[in-house]
Amino acid sequence: MLSVKRILVTGGGGFLGSHLCEKLLSKGHEVLCADNFFCGNKNNIIHLYGSPRFEVIRHDVTFPLYVEVDEIYNLACPASPVHYQRDPVQTLKTSVHGAINMLGLAKRVRAKILQTSTSEVYGDPAVHPQRENYWGNVNPIGIRSCYDEGKRAAECLFADYHRQHGLRVKIARLFNSYGPRMHPNDGRVVSNFIIQALTGKNLTVYGDGSQTRSFCYVDDTIDGLIALMDKTDDGFIGPMNLGNPTEFTILELANLVIEMTGSKSKIEFRDLPQDDPARRKPDISLAAELLKWNPSIALIDGLQATIRHLKGVIES
Ligand SMILES: NC(=O)c1ccc[n+]([C@@H]2O[C@H](COP(=O)([O-])OP(=O)(O)OC[C@H]3O[C@@H](n4cnc5c(N)ncnc54)[C@H](O)[C@@H]3O)[C@@H](O)[C@H]2O)c1
User: Fold this and answer.
1) How many CB atoms lie within 10 A of CB 32?
2) What is the rounded CA–CA span in Å between residue 281 and residue 272?
3) Is the pTM of this model over 0.85?
4) Of 30, 162, 246, 280, whose Cβ has the fewest other Cβ atoms within 10 Å?
């Protein structure tokens, strides 16, 4: 029998957060979404407003929050370079002060808390694929550092609150996720290519396009997050990689998007930005073993749903 929980989702107005709120509601839980809408959008959650089990508060996690909840999913953080580089100091504060505030709240109300960390903690990895025990290769003072180092510090805080205060914490390291409700112009590669293809612009590939990424469809990501949160409290805190290990070069992705949209767009090569990692691929054996989790949605199917969504955004 399901026990109904009161669950706080910070960053619930964003891409992943909105899907998470939706999924948790569909499971019968009460959901409180806290977002300052720095880069989220109310349209992502407007369809949930009718539910009496759903509430939204405009709140910046760099300030304390006093609510009574059983679980906290801490997603609040600008996640794309365009957004996190717009105000790097606020990005770092969101990761660090946000983690301290949400951990403080979890400690006060004895809630279980999950942090959405990122594959960016591996930086430009010197080992491939990346396992959780790899410590990373991160530039501490570069233009991506506000995000990468902020997330690393947040992981440290989660681990220390667990060790020092016995808090029940979980750390998920998410690799690139994509799907409907991605921001249409925040520069993330999947949405970028689709929008460029749908509007007849050239697809901008940075470097020679041989750098690889792995893309996990949003439904798979959300299932993984919930499975990690729901895992029996046996002291396991993570970190745990969640992502799709099937690797594609950026050039392959660009060609696939052109083909699937039937676009006449061409590919345009640009200089590689600073600290752009050459390869990214998760080793997900830990998630497969402990959660029996494996992504199940193929890139072609996920892209179809994402293209449909972004077509709607352009038309509206
Ligand atoms: N999408 C991915 O591929 C991916 C990969 C790795 C990690 N993540 C992590 O998952 C989380 C969600 O990512 P997303 O893709 O949904 O990003 P997103 O930008 O769509 O959502 C982030 C949300 O957090 C909110 N936010 C930002 N700063 C805040 C603050 N100070 N207080 C309250 N709310 C704030 C934004 O308004 C937005 O709604 C982020 O923490 C991100 O680092 C995402």
Assistant:
1) 22
2) 19
3) yes
4) 246
